[in-house]
Amino acid sequence: MTPEELRALIRTIPDFPEPGIQFRDITTLIGHQQGLKASVQHLAERAAAVGAEAIAGMEARGFIFGAAVAVQLGLGFLPVRKPGKLPIETIGVDYALEYGTDRLEIDPGAVGKGQKVVIVDDLIATGGTALAAAELLRMAGASVQNALFVIDLPDLGGAGKLRDAGIAVDCLMEFEGD
């Protein structure tokens, strides 16, 4: 399936979570056998092309695509977790949300020094979570130069923020507007 055919599998839900927002729901894509398979194949081809040595994904939907891409490429998967989810000593980074802050954590021993890690997630909006993940992986010694997403919401500017941080961004599709 082409990225345009995959785009047609994304359900748009108006006025969620609040009026004026057009929510891009990937559950219709991941529930479609061929759509999920094709999405993972497209992402895996792009990760392989940039020399990925490991794939990282952020909780929770990044786990879906990231782990599948890692399996497709025969690479390890690095889960970037919400706080308190790992039973070992972690390193973490706090980051700003629209209304407050959040935190991401990883097992620092899971990352090899200089290991080329590609971030994979379902969607890039404002870029806060992806930037925090890149910072955290870099703190652990990874080389993070690429991030792959199924969906980009370009009006929210997240891809540009990643590029400003020295991270190349590639997306399967874009949805303009809110």
UniProtKB/TrEMBL annotation:
Sorted UniProt keywords: Cytoplasm, Glycosyltransferase, Purine salvage, Transferase
UniProt-listed Pfam families: Pribosyltran
Signal peptide: none
GO CC field: cytoplasm
Main subcellular localisation: cytoplasm
Classification via SUPFAM superfamilies: PRTase-like
Known catalytic reactions: AMP + diphosphate = 5-phospho-alpha-D-ribose 1-diphosphate + adenine
Top EC category: transferase
Gene Ontology terms describing biological process: adenine salvage; AMP salvage; purine ribonucleoside salvage
Positions of the Phosphoribosyltransferase domain: 53-150
Domain of life per record: Bacteria
Location of this chain's protein in the cell: Cytoplasm
Pathway: Purine metabolism; AMP biosynthesis via salvage pathway; AMP from adenine: step 1/1
GO MF annotation terms: adenine binding; adenine phosphoribosyltransferase activity; AMP binding
Coiled coil ranges: none
Record function comment: Catalyzes a salvage reaction resulting in the formation of AMP, that is energically less costly than de novo synthesis.
Subunit structure: Homodimer.
Family to which the UniProt record says this protein belongs: Belongs to the purine/pyrimidine phosphoribosyltransferase family.
Matching NCBIfam families: apt, PRK02304.1-3, PRK02304.1-5
Protein name: Adenine phosphoribosyltransferase
Organism this protein belongs to: Altererythrobacter epoxidivorans
